[in-house]
Amino acid sequence: MARVYLRILASLFALAVLAGTVLGAYYLYRESYLPEKQRTKEVKTLLSSSAPKADPGRKVFDQAMDLIRRGELEAAKQLLTEITEVYQDSSRFEDSQRVLGEINLDRIFSRAPMPGKLEYTAVRGDSLHEIAKRFRTTLAYIKRVNNLLGSIVHPDDHLIVYPLDFTMKVDLSGKSITLLKDDRYFKKYTIRGMKLPFSSLPAQTTLGDKPAWLEAKKIQPFDDRYAGSRKWLQTAGKPSRPGLIFCASPPDNPPPPPSGTPPAVPPAGLAAILNTPGVYLDESDIEELSTLVRVGTPVEFLKKAPNAAPATRS
After folding, report:
1. Cys-Cys with 293: which of 154, 173, 250, 297 at CB 3.0–4.6 Å?
2. What is the mean pLDDT of residues 16-44?
3. In Å, how far are 107, 132, 179, 202 from 112, measured between CA atoms?
């Protein structure tokens, strides 16, 4: 009889344990699994919804614009730099690049002090060309910042100089050229078109020449006629393969001659220059770039060049 009672008690105990297990499992299911499943469903719904995503860069941009209106350009510059480096998916990313580029240009072309900018006192025997080489800047920059019309420098002249140590990053697929200073964004330029003479380009090279053209004659930067000539930038090349040229866009629709006047026919050399294969930018951008970059400036091609059939060079 005692054994029967023991068996009954053991069975009741087993049923109690089973019931406890079932109740514990149900409790975990109700308190943990269901809420977690609901949260997962809500997150998926939010991600798939068309609700606008958070854009912290927009708020930072508005703060920068407010600082500019109050004349606090250095603080605004720091915020705009933050957007270009941190919030690259912001709707204000391109606006930030544009405004930051203009601030950078204003600072570098003014006589106001800034890190790296020096005042040099000329001595007997100096030339602007030699001063530009000594301070890693360009003759055009010295003339622009110091309001010089010619290339003559006199002893005791006080000249603002600044080392123009830029890197050019060329994105042919994205049709842009970005200038970097100390590996940070400085300004971006838009590529308006291109006619590449080569099917491939080196990933890294340097600027090999900065000539200009005036009536089919090659003009160097130290020539006083350089200011009014058609500027070129050309990467370093080899005797069998000249470097890639960056120049102003050839005119698509030149203005018609006055009534009764026969159309002007450019000299053969000038016609070849106007139709040179290369990368084309706005004329004002080429003017600006030729002032900012030096022979020897690093040039990086970020993406593979589009397929291009070799073009004949005259």
Report:
1. 297
2. 60
3. 7, 19, 22, 38
Per DSSP, the three-state class of 213 is strand
So where are the chain's domains?
53-109, 112-164, 166-251+267-301
Tally the residues of the chain: 314
Query: Under CATH, which number does the domain 112-164 receive?
Result: 3.10.350.10
174 contact partners, CB below 8 Å, separation of at least 6 = 302, 303
- List b or e across 82-114, with b for residues whose CB sees 16 or more CB atoms inside 10 angstroms: bbbeebeebebbebbbebbbebbeebbbeeeee
**Burial of 47 from C-beta contacts in 10 A (0-12 / 13-18 / 19+):** exposed
Q: Within 13 Å, how many C-alpha atoms sit on residue 215's CB side?
A: 1
Contacts for 16-22 with beta carbons within 8 Å, 24 or more apart?
A: none
**pLDDT tens digits, one per residue of 45-60:** 655 655 567 888 899 9
Exposure string over 248-273, b if 16+ CB within 10 A, otherwise e:
bbeeeeeeeeeeeeeeeeeeeebeeb
The rounded distance, in Å, linking the Cα atoms of 134 and 130 is: 6
Q: What are phi and psi of 31, to 5 degrees?
A: -90, -25
Q: Which CATH number fits domain 166-251+267-301: 1.10.357.10, 2.60.200.30, 2.40.440.10, 3.30.230.10?
A: 2.40.440.10
Is the whole model's pTM more than 0.85, yes or no? no
The helix/strand/coil state of 260 is coil
